[in-house]
Amino acid sequence: MTERIDGHGGELALATLRAYGVREMFTLSGGHVFPLYDAAHRTDFPLYDVRHEQSAVFAAEAVAKLQRRPGLAVLTAGPGVTNGISGLTSAYFNASPVLVLGGRAPQFRWGSGSLQELDHLPLVAPVTKHAETVFGADDIPRAVAAALDAALTPHRGPVFLDFPLEAIFSTGDVEVPAGPAIAPIEADPDEVATAAALVAGAARPVIVAGSDVYAGDAVDALRAAAEALGVPVFTNGMGRGALPPEHPLAFAKARRVALKGADVVVVVGTPLDFRLSFGDFGDAKVVHIVDAPSQRASHVQPAAAPAGDLRAILTALADHTGDRADHGDWIAQLRTAEDAAKARDAEEMAAETDPIRPARVYGELRKVLARDAVTIGDGGDFVSYAGRYLEPAQPGTWLDPGPYGCLGTGMGYAMGARVTHPDRQICVLMGDGAAGFSLMDVESLVRQQLPVVIVVGNNGIWGLEKHPMRAMYGYDVAADLQPELRYDQVVSALGGAGETVAKAADLGPALHRAFDAGVPYLVNVITDPADAYPRSSNLA
Fold this sequence. Notes:
Layout: E1 3-8, H1 9-19, E2 25-27, H2 34-42, E3 47-49, H3 53-67, E4 71-75, H4 79-83, H5 85-94, E5 98-104, H6 121-124, E6 130-133, H7 140-152, E7 159-164, H8 165-169, E8 171-176, H9 189-201, E9 205-209, H10 211-215, H11 219-229, E10 233-235, H12 255-261, E11 264-268, E12 285-289, H13 310-318, H14 328-349, H15 358-368, E13 374-378, H16 381-389, E14 398-399, H17 410-420, E15 426-431, H18 432-438, H19 442-447, E16 453-458, H20 463-473, H21 487-493, E17 497-501, H22 507-516, E18 521-526
Parallel strand pairs: 2-3, 2-4, 4-5, 5-7, 6-7, 9-10, 9-11, 11-12, 13-14, 13-15, 15-16, 16-18, 17-18
Antiparallel strand pairs: 1-8
Helix pairs in contact: 1-2, 1-7, 3-5, 3-17, 9-13, 11-13, 14-15, 15-16, 15-22
């Protein structure tokens, strides 16, 4: 049912946004977008402001990822928009339905040199699904609805609109669209049947499930398919937690053994990119299940590649009535490897060494994190350990930058996560390098009473660069940071609290204080710079 609205451009936009389920706005104040603020203020629409526009977009992306609905960032013209482009690009790689609304210099004097006059569209078009300038107030509801429909249609992603000054400040009298009606994409039934037969008949199948399984609300269908066919499951991105760690088909530590020994690898809802050896699993056949035809890999030839609604495809796999091989011995083999790796990890997470090894930080975190805690990774070397040692127990509790690998997501993601889950633990895992990108936005969290815990792994270096560069050249440059810098004092100065920990025995008590503080609290852990994450740099 549509509604007729008579109001200025900000009111017209906000009415449409509400119809599409948007419930908050993230922004950094700018005069070009005042009507959007006016509409929000006069209708008690929650508005959260930040100290850098990238944090506004990252906060909107966190909401989009966690709640599987549109997230909204409002940026002023020119540098406001360009400061948000890294956030837009991350959302593009992560398939996050984020809408960025930008201000724009007035069209009636375009080319005369107005303040922050810039045509944004050529910059944002390559990293959005839809980008448009809206020149009249009456056209704003249509444009907002069209953009959000594009954002929500698989394969999901960010969209952008900007409004010239005279358009957003003018009034209109138009009908507001009723909201989204996104039709599911139906996969080719023959392709689905081929995939189901390959998986069921394999001797050593493996499922790798990624973020789109969560985004497509297909977690239950994944579990049903895995259980019906008896297939071990590994996860990445927001697929983590789709099966709880105690599930007999959930695996995390034996991935190398599994991918090396599998005869069929089923990759669901994640690209065949550098995180998965670009889809090269030796002699194994690859089944690539994606949410839209555009996501089929072009650099490999899968044995089957169903494209469409992931719930429907996975349900069809679960309902497969053909022959099924017994995978019991294969699962037992992987469980043996998994248990051995867990035993090794347990020793590392209990290490009493000083300087502190990063593994010990995660050993202590595992003791204090609740099952529904939202954990956010923002960093390189230090956060790589998080992927190894932390095992999310529930879906929708893990946020990382995704395949684009953009640092600086931390405080924005923390804001979006805290807004989404006011009563849960929110924990940001941050390298000391990443801290330089967004730590000032602790002030935004403090001011708006959004408590989070920040754990900084402080080794005084760019770990993923220093060690590989030394291995390649025998020296390193531009890879050192100030050793033992007091990031906790930065947070305290911004109105939060924190402390520095240099001894392993002090980690547990510090983390308990952090989660009990009720304000943004940073635990600055001095870690061993010689302890690098054990993997080679993949620049291909």
